[in-house]
Design goal:
Layout (H helix, E strand, L loop, with lengths): L2 H15 L5 E6 L3 H11 L4 E7 L3 H10 L6 E3 L3 H5 L5 E4 L6 H10 L3 E4 L7 H13 L4 E3 L7 H11 L6 E9 L17 H4 L1 H5 L2 H11 L5 E7 L15 E7 L5 E7 L11 E7 L2 E5 L4 E4 L4 E4 L10 H11 L8 H20 L3 E2 L8
Parallel strand pairs: 1-2, 1-4, 2-3, 4-5, 5-6, 7-10
Antiparallel strand pairs: 7-11, 8-9, 8-15, 9-10, 11-12, 12-13, 13-14
Helix pairs in contact: 5-6, 6-12, 10-12
Bound molecules: nicotinamide-adenine-dinucleotide.
């Protein structure tokens, strides 16, 4: 073993056993989300920024400047990160269709991976990514930070402990007050179904994950409809829906009625995002008021009060999983289940028929 490789391997092992060491980290994609993640990594005392990648040089320069204290290497070719044996962990914040390929390659190169959601946009990619994550001895975390939020965690725990009895039905929505900017910095991928998966896969994957979490299962089948009602061919070539309505059925008989659209007026009552969980003894509103109601409609309390959330909590959870061996709150099972729920929702709308979860051929 040459000296450089020996030192590199040594530092990797140190990172996994010594919580005071710094995990050598790289990031691919420093646009909107990647910039946030980069600052969150810089807030960790046990992380060292070793390499930054983006194929847009202006973003690369800006990111390198913000991480200047580590003097990170920069590249426009993400595969260069894989060649660096001294890099222990890779964050992936590129457009969704690139996630699976990059994450699989990073896992196979022995890196821990923090992969933004959705972790894949097709069932085929998901299958390969699951196999790679399960075969590797590395930490894989999806960027589903709702799993690290104290208020939601507390509410879900109380529901699992039976505060509203059995969960009977869930009604949820993720409505936006406007379409994504047609001339914005992400319009080179967002409005293309093959690149983003559309709003359901790219955004509602968070909300669908929370619904699965509350219900404690993944759906067994779904039916639904989607379309473009307002933004027809805006921007030119657009092939993602601007509205969808999907019903999921779970093995325990629970139904989830989910809608997603981009023309919800600001301040319209009920708000643009919520999860209403109906139980045999009461009901709750999650992601909005967190109010707890008895079955006769009396508001009993706030199920879990608002707290000051730590915006870096999910990043910290990733490093804890690497260095302390704690379980990631959104491991590959969580990430894949959420992604497949969203993919199933898209497939039923596109194929115009009821589909079963197992027809997608992914075993999670
Ligand atoms: N967890 C969250 O709450 C959250 C919030 C926003 C976005 N996201 C996710 O983060 C991801 C990125 O979204 P965004 O809003 O930052 O998009 P963005 O368009 O702002 O950034 C994507 C970046 O990836 C770079 N890129 C594209 N192809 C590349 C390649 N081959 N090699 C290197 N770099 C490449 C682009 O140049 C760009 O800088 C998406 O998957 C999105 O769903 C997650």
């Amino acid at each position: 073993m040459n000296r450089r490789l020996f030192l590199a391997t040594g530092s990797s092992l140190l990172a996994q056993t010594n919580p005071n060491s710094q995990v050598s980290t790289a990031i691919i994609g420093v646009g909107n989300r990647g910039s946030f993640l980069l600052s969150s990594i810089l807030n960790q005392t046990n992380a060292r920024m070793a390499m930054i990648c983006d194929n847009k040089p202006d973003r690369l320069d800006k990111a390198a400047t913000s991480a200047a204290k580590f003097n990170p290497a920069t590249t426009t070719d993400w595969r260069k990160i894989l060649d660096r044996k001294d890099i222990d962990a890779v964050f992936i914040a590129t457009p969704p269709y690139l996630h699976a390929e990059m994450a699989i390659a990073a896992l196979k190169a022995g890196k821990h991976v923090y992969c933004e959601k959705p972790i894949a946009t097709t069932a085929a990619d998901l299958r390969e990514l699951l196999a790679a994550a399960k075969a590797s001895k590395r930490v894989f975390q999806s960027g589903q930070q709702l799993r690290s939020m104290i208020q939601l965690r507390s509410a879900v725990q109380q529901i699992h402990d039976g505060i509203i009895g059995d969960v009977l039905f869930v009604k949820a929505q993720r409505h936006a007050t406007a379409d994504l900017d047609h001339n914005g910095p992400s319009n080179d991928w967002y409005f293309n179904y093959a690149k983003s998966g559309g709003y359901l896969v790219e955004q509602s994957v968070h909300n669908l994950d929370a619904c699965n979490w509350v219900i404690g299962q993944h759906p067994s089948r779904a039916a639904g409809f989607g379309g473009i009602q307002l933004h027809k061919n805006e921007p030119t070539g657009r092939d993602i829906y601007d509205n969808q309505s999907i019903t999921y059925e779970y093995p325990n008989g629970v139904k989830l009625s989910f809608t997603q659209l981009v023309f919800h007026p600001r301040n319209m009552p009920a708000g643009n995002q919520y999860i209403h969980v109906y139980g045999s003894k009461g009901s709750v509103e999650l992601m909005s008021t967190y109010n707890l109601y008895s079955s006769d409609g009396k508001q009993l309390s706030v199920l879990s009060p608002k707290v000051q959330e730590d915006p870096d909590a999910h990043t910290t959870a990733f490093y804890d999983a690497i260095q302390k061996g704690t379980k990631s709150p959104s491991d590959v099972t969580v990430g894949a289940t959420a992604a497949l729920t969203a993919i199933l929702g898209n497939e039923v709308c596109r194929q115009g028929k009821v589909l079963r979860w197992d027809e997608l051929g992914v075993s999670i």
